[in-house]
Batch of 2 targets.
Target 1
Amino acid sequence: IIYLLAAFIVSLVNAVILTRIHTRGDSYFYPSIFYTIALANGGYLFLALSTNIEEALLANKIVFVAGAFLPFFMYLGLLNLCKVKIGNVLQVPLLALSSIMYLLGASAGYTDFFYKNAHFIAKNGIGGFEASYGTGYIIFTIVILIYATAFLSTVFIAFLQKKNVSYHSLASLIFIGST
């Protein structure tokens, strides 16, 4: 729990620092990456502190905000770094897709679409849950794989087109994206 608390605090501090130094003309998705990471770390902390299945599923829904929207923000950041303009034509459908993915995750505990069943577990005082996955979880996993493919394809195309992008930055993004 100490690790989760430290990660949550560090991510909050990073988000606050970014908020203080971020200029309004900059793209919105960079700060959004930091905010969703802080939210996810808070969700993981709350999951570890949960004492029953309702608390565990609620904490998991907080984590799923990042699970649904972080790939979207990271992909927009990558496109910006690679100087690829997509406009609202692609941003709006991707945002809608992320919103649908979040709604699928938020349905846990109300329907069996995301998790067929879930039960609370505690190991060494750390809360969590075990679940059998439903169709919604499979769809969520497929969407994450699509984002990963788009991410790697964009980096590969940027390498081939030799856009004015640092190869070190692209290599770092590949490493970050693959972890």
Target 2
Amino acid sequence: EGGLVSEWIFTGYVEKSKKHYLYGVTGKVISLEKKISHNRKSGLQAILTLIQALQVLGKDPSRQYEVSLDTVYFTETNGILFLPATIIRKLKDTGTEEYRKKIHQISNPYYIKQNERAVYAIEALLFYVLTGNFPFTGKTEEELRNNLRNMNIPSPKSFLPEMKPDVARHFEVFFNTKS
């Protein structure tokens, strides 16, 4: 546990030209989105580290967190920082449609409980790292939300034909099951 998860203390927040800036973060950090985009091996390692951090957070139900591509950051020492929930809400409220679409690629708004949203995010991240695609997509935010609501997912084998049938079936069952 020691050092894997840290509370992120920030001293300020500002929006300039539709970009959001936080003040108070020290040290170099890399977003979850960039961390999983390098290659399968490093992507899977990042997901494993994230799962370990979520296990630590799960021990204290008062800790609020959200798993999204740009709200989770890895430190140089492989620790994880989660953006504060108040900042996440502000980013969702003020973000562009493209930004909101990015959020929904691994965050299903139809899962209510925090731990269910985290499991969903892990599954979506694994799907992405293995296939190179997110399970749900859409040209617009509305189309993406409809695909989420209706559980419209392409077969993972359409992206990665050599995927083992049991793994493909796992994703198909998980993402086609309503919560």
